[in-house]
Automatic annotation (TrEMBL):
Listed Pfam families: Cytochrom_C (PF00034), SoxA-TsdA_cyt-c (PF21342)
TM region positions: 12-39
Keyword Lipoprotein: no
PROSITE patterns documented for this protein: CYTC
Region ranges (Disordered): 50-73, 299-329
Record domain Cytochrome c: where: 209-299
GO molecular function: electron transfer activity; heme binding; metal ion binding
Alphabetized SUPFAM superfamilies for the sequence: Cytochrome c
Entry keyword set: Heme, Iron, Membrane, Metal-binding, Transmembrane, Transmembrane helix
UniProt keyword annotation of Repeat present: no
InterPro entries, per database record: Cyt_c-like_dom (IPR009056), Cyt_c-like_dom_sf (IPR036909), Cytochrome_c-type_DH (IPR051459)
Name used for this protein in its record: C-type cytochrome
Length: 352
């Protein structure tokens, strides 16, 4: 090769290398764009367990009106009817003392009290309160597909949330519980919905609720009262719980309403940890969803419910047991994400 040709060859070689590098770079860019267009990343965003567990209370929520107050117990009349109402209130507040494993009347329930789920004897706002029950029942319930009376609703709770056996409708205890519930709602017109009943609203997460993250939230926010193994804290005499068990054989069974993650998330958002009110929450939305997923991922008693949801198209989006009228998995029905399920069942959107 002539000496004058060497610089030209070198320049050509360098140009080829540059062109190759540009071609490779363009190929990578095109490949990345095609992957994003036709193979999007659907994985849930990474969640920092430590960060979520250590987050402090969020700003006060959007619910600022006071919840509808319960009538003053001082107004309960000093009559036989008043005695029955007071007895009913005691049965709600201290169920286990009367009906629990060491109950003075019967041994029907698991040792929890009704007010472990229906706080302040069923009067606390957005904490499962009873104020609208008398105005609402009897009513047709999709879960049973039948008209449900207050008595049936009470026994539902006893059999599911207290993992117990039903009371006789004519028993002194059932009559007293119904009398108390009716007294709470005696000023509420039939069919009227009052502010503070039911559960607070809670937006769906764009991802599934995460039991692993929820375990860290539980350790940081809940176990000081409910115990590291969710076992609860008994009163000194052992007849009832100061703080109820959240899983295990003494907790609610898998037929209970709070076994649905959306219900438990809404409940803990408005009422937990101890001292929380719906307008001054202590948990973020993410913490509420994830700790609910963790609690409901733990073992608990099983209840056979072959008659539940006779019309399966009316099952809530978060009902954790099939069969379903859609192709979403049982795991997604339990933990979410729920929005795609709701989008497939627009008739269920009202449930949230």
């Amino acid at each position: 090769m002539e000496p004058s040709e060497e610089p030209i060859v070198a320049r050509l070689s360098g140009l080829v290398q540059v062109l190759l590098l540009i071609t490779v770079a363009l190929a990578l860019v095109v490949t990345t764009v095609l992957i994003q267009l036709y193979w999007p990343n659907t994985a849930a965003p990474a969640v920092s367990v430590a960060n979520e567990a250590s987050q402090g209370p969020p700003p006060p929520g959007s619910y600022h009106r006071p919840a509808t107050p319960a009538p003053d117990t001082a107004t309960i009349p000093r009559t036989a009817a008043g005695w029955q109402i007071r007895y009913g209130r005691n049965l709600i507040a201290h169920t286990a003392r009367y009906l629990g494993p060491q109950g003075s009347v019967a041994h029907l329930t698991n040792g929890m009290n009704c007010q472990n789920c229906h706080l302040d004897a069923g009067t606390k706002g957005f904490a499962n309160n009873y104020l609208a029950v008398a105005a609402t029942y009897p009513k047709l319930r999709a879960r049973s597909g039948t008209m449900v009376t207050t008595q049936l609703r009470v026994n539902d709770c006893i059999e599911r949330s207290l993992n117990g056996r039903a009371l006789d409708d004519s028993s002194r205890e059932m009559c007293a519980i119904v009398a108390y519930i009716n007294w709470l709602g005696h000023d509420i017109p039939k069919g009227k919905k009052v502010y503070g009943t039911g559960f607070t609203k809670l937006a769906y997460l764009p991802r599934a609720a995460d039991p692993i993250v929820g375990k860290a939230v539980f350790a940081a926010k809940c176990q000081s009262c409910h115990g590291p193994n969710g076992e609860g804290k008994p009163q000194a005499d052992g007849r009832e719980y100061q703080y109820p068990p959240l899983w295990g054989r003494h907790s609610y069974n898998d037929g209970a309403g709070l076994y649905r993650v959306t219900n438990l998330a809404k409940y803990v958002k408005a009422a937990m940890p101890f001292g929380t009110t719906f307008d001054h929450p202590q948990l973020t939305d993410e913490q509420a969803w994830d700790v609910a997923a963790f609690v409901n991922s733990q073992p608990r008693p099983h209840l056979n419910t072959p008659r539940d949801w006779p019309n399966i198209s009316k099952k809530p989006v978060d009902h954790p047991f099939g069969p379903y009228t859609d192709s979403f998995s049982a795991r997604q029905h339990k933990y979410g994400p729920y929005q795609p399920i709701e989008d497939a069942h627009p008739q269920l959107a009202k449930a949230n």
